[in-house]
Specification:
Largest sheet: 6 strands, mixed
Helix content: 55-70%
Order of helices and strands: HHHHHHHHEHEEHEEHEHHHHHH
Number of domains: 3
Strand content: 5-15%
Structural class: alpha+beta
Number of helices: 17
Distance between the termini: 105 Å
Number of strands: 6
Shape: rod-shaped
Radius of gyration: 35 Å
Length: about 400
């Protein structure tokens, strides 16, 4: 294996003797690896490939011992092994454990051979021990650095692939026929389950909008896949069958650094595009430059509001236009009183209990509100219009500030 051209020394004699039976040494190392490490018992790494890597590591050290350390450090073998194992998905801990087990066995063989050659061989090997450990460190470092570099490349490629799959679901191009099943499989999601779409606003480029979220989601057994967008990141969350949605909301709130919009729960991935609209509107309805989470309810009215925002805006302005033009304090008071009055089925007494005020105060406020409606509150049609307009404001609070200017005073 190695042509020793220098004068024979006790150490080179040990090296040459061990080189002569390197195949049996490598075979024993491979047996030890397969016996001790489960990953190498699988089909990913063949025995031939395992032996080739071990043979390279043994040859690396023997070459330097035979040349008395004069040969350059050629770490191409551990570099290639580290890269290959990373691309194969082998855990780094297992890859390094192979090296430690094999090196311990190799050292035992060196020591045994040195002792068999006599006292001079043993002393020569012990004198070279520090050099051997330095070689071992160089090998281990090259393997680790190569592994981590390849693993980082693999992670970037995987993130790009997942991002592309998320994009296909968000724009609806990956939800036809069997395609959604394949997309779900690649993302590690069930094609039917419990899902949420989250839109998280980014405040500065490069900063994650939800730092630490992945750790919290893993603890809840929630899978996720994300795609960066201008000004935000969009994620699909896959919830376990029996997990609590409230726990996921708590995790999002705890890690949010800006606004986060969340869709209602949905059950099939082909509804992702529809759910994205809910999440985006939920984010847009939060106060700008703040931190918070909002999830829209899945109601027929919400569907109607989101189906045509222009029609919703016109309808709200027709019903509440005069009211929306009032000064902020008065408008806020009347808009807080109306839902309580409706929830109390028109009872001023019950509404007053909810609002912690006198019933006459409720009656006065409702008369003031009635002045800005399209008819009397004794008319069921007017009450129905008021209820729908208030619900629309609940879905889209921005409509409070999006109304025609009041008529000019004469």
């Amino acid at each position: 294996m190695h042509d020793v051209k220098t004068a024979q020394t006790p150490l080179t004699e040990v090296v040459r003797t061990l080189e002569a039976r390197i195949e049996s040494v490598v075979s024993e190392m491979a047996d030890l690896t397969v016996r001790e490490i489960a990953f190498y018992r699988g089909p990913t790494v063949s025995r031939e490939a395992l032996c080739a890597g071990l043979r390279g590591s043994v040859g690396f050290i023997l070459m330097h011992l035979a040349d008395d350390g004069m040969a350059p450090h050629d770490v191409s073998a551990p570099t290639e092994t580290g890269r290959t194992r990373a691309l194969q998905g082998a855990p780094l801990a297992d890859v390094l454990r192979v090296y430690r087990l094999s090196f311990a066995y190799f050292w035992e063989q060196l020591l045994m051979q040195a002792r068999a050659s006599g006292e001079d061989g043993t002393q020569a090997l012990l004198a070279a021990a520090s050099r051997i450990w330095a070689l071992a460190e160089a090998y281990s470092t090259a393997l680790t650095e190569s592994y981590r570099e390849a693993a980082a490349e693999r992670m970037v490629e995987a993130d790009r692939r997942r991002s592309a799959l998320v994009a296909a679901l968000l724009d609806g191009t990956g939800t036809d026929g069997e395609e959604v099943w394949e997309t779900a499989r690649l993302l590690g999601f069930p094609p039917q389950g419990r899902y949420l779409v989250a839109v998280a606003e980014t405040t500065r480029p490069g900063d994650p909008p939800l730092p630490g979220l992945q750790h919290r989601l893993r603890a809840l057994d929630v899978g996720s896949a994300w795609r960066p967008q201008p000004g935000c990141e969009v994620g699909i969350l896959s919830l376990p069958a029996r997990g609590k949605v409230s726990a996921v909301l708590d995790a999002l709130r705890a890690t949010a650094t800006a606004r986060v919009g969340l869709s209602p729960l949905y059950l099939t991935l082909d509804h992702t595009r529809h759910s994205l609209r809910y999440a985006q509107v939920a984010l847009d309805s939060l106060p700008p430059d703040g931190i918070g989470l909002r999830q829209l309810d899945d109601t027929p009215l919400t569907d109607l509001v989101l189906a045509n925002l222009d029609s919703t805006r016109r309808a709200v302005n027709r019903v509440l236009g005069g009211l929306l033009c009032l000064p902020d304090n008065e408008r806020t008071t009347l808009l807080a009183t109306a839902p309580a009055w409706l929830g109390a089925h028109g009872s001023a007494t019950d509404a007053a209990e909810a609002l912690y005020c006198h019933p006459n105060t409720v009656r006065y406020r409702m008369r003031r509100l009635e002045e800005h409606l399209r008819g009397s509150l004794e008319d069921p049609l007017v009450i129905g219009e008021l209820a729908i307009a208030l619900d629309a404001l609940g879905v889209l609070p921005a409509l409070l500030h999006d109304h025609p200017a009041p008529p000019a005073a004469h």
